[in-house]
Amino acid sequence: MGAPGRKVWELVHSLTKSENERFYDRAFEYKRGGYAQYTILYDALRRQKVFDEDELRETLKNEKFLVHLHRVKYYLYGKILKFLRDSEEEGETKLFAYLGNIKFLLGKRLFLHIPDQIEKAIKLAEETEDFLSHLKILKYQRELINVSKNWGFDAGEIREVHENETKLRQLDTERFELQKLLDTFKGVSRVSSMKEEINIIESQLTIPQSKTGLILYCRIRINIALRTGRYADCILETDRIISIFQNSKGLLQNDSYYKDLVMAIYHGAMVRSFIGKFEEADNIMKALEGELNTKNRLPSLYYELKILHELGIGMASLNFPRIWEAIKSYYELPESMLANIDWVKKIEILHIAANASIIDEKPKDTLKYINSIANIKPAYLRLDIRQFSRILFLVAHYDLGNLDVIETGVRAARISFKRKKVENAFYTGVLKMFSKITRANSIEKKKLAMREFLAGFTGDSAQSWNRMNQYFNIKAWLISKIKQQSLLTILREKDEL
């Protein structure tokens, strides 16, 4: 900051009566009723008509902090700005604080104090790639140049500010366009092919110039990879995001970017689980508990992803103790934390639990989880899972031997799908199969109905059938009924007809 004594003296003497009162109030509140060292210095500076370092030291000669007076001056300067700037808020970011400082100092016409604040703010804005805040800083820089032209600013410096503004707007626009492409996937199930949309998106994708733009680019590529089964690409893009943050730790100061890293770690672990790399998946998730400290920074998100990871790896490895331990931990979360978990993720957790219950021969529990999904509001969240829950309802009641309930369930599903204009050949086939099963008067006729439905997993319908099968492996379930073996056995042996 340079010449801290004179600058803090200038700042103290720029304050109005009401600002002085506010400073004392905040200092008293901050110290919880005590009288801090910096307030003693503040009083001494207020009494000086002209700044005099020797006189100041003489005044403070009996104070213990005199040996580190230089540091206390800096501290007082920061406290005055913190207590009096308009933007002072609980939990504000450093960059937000710098912007508030600059605005406050401009209002006080303490122009020589501002370049230092601008320099620090620009450095932080560059580290965090906060383009909008950076533009605000440049706006203040232009104001400073305009009111202080006689200090030697030349046309080149003004032109540099304008060039920087233009570049930042371009980067912000680029990032905005990438965000729009990413939003295309919002609310759309990962099992949805989105073939046409993906073709359009891929044709528009170009490597962005900024690191935060590249993160969005990678997130788009991850969404595409998940929907096209290109799991190696998904791992590549999640690892690229992790690498960006490893090389640009300043980005982690922004909660939104921090969350991007957390989600990249989760997606990287999820895909590794899906392809059987369980140890790698567990290891990558450990990053959330180490330096990132997600458990304390974003506790609800941490437990949400931790539970989903445990469920995902448990389902992929058919490790039911791990699955039920994850479900138990979900229900044991405090209400306050549970309330902050994304409702969509709650539906996904319950859906996995419903699936696991079928495999683990607990169909009554499946019905319990389906009912919990139905009770989650608003009703438009994860319509795909809600619709498939009607199929799980039929599966559970078949395992319970409730054929009369199945017939009612088929009728209810048809009415619901018709009312909601759900046109899906897979659903039509499932309902037709269950309808035949309820009317079949022999085991062989039931098996025939099952085989007729399984034929949909071949030929032209194979792709869409297999995609729908990701909600629940009804193919394996039907094979288990035909072969009269447990579903778990069929899944472990990856048995086919």
In short:
With 497 residues, the protein is mainly alpha-helical. It has 3 domains: 4-172, no CATH class; 184-341; 343-497. It has helices at residues 4-14, 17-30, 37-47, 53-59, 69-84, 94-107, 114-128, 131-147, 155-183, 195-204, 211-228, 231-247, 255-274, 278-285, 294-297, 299-317, 320-331, 335-338, 343-359, 363-374, 383-400, 403-419, 425-439, 443-454, 462-468, 474-483, 487-493.
Count, helices: 27
The averaged pLDDT comes out at: 90
Shape: elongated
Low-confidence stretches: none
Helix content: over 70%
Sheet having the most strands: none
Strand segment tally: 0
Please state the structural category.
Answer: mainly alpha
Strand content: under 5%
The overall number of domains is 3
Q: Strand-and-helix sequence, N→C?
A: HHHHHHHHHHHHHHHHHHHHHHHHHHH
End-to-end Cα distance, whole Å, is 78 Å
Compute the gyration radius: what is it? 31 Å
List the main descriptive attributes of the protein structure presented here.
mainly alpha; single chain; elongated; 497 residues; 73% helix; 27 helices
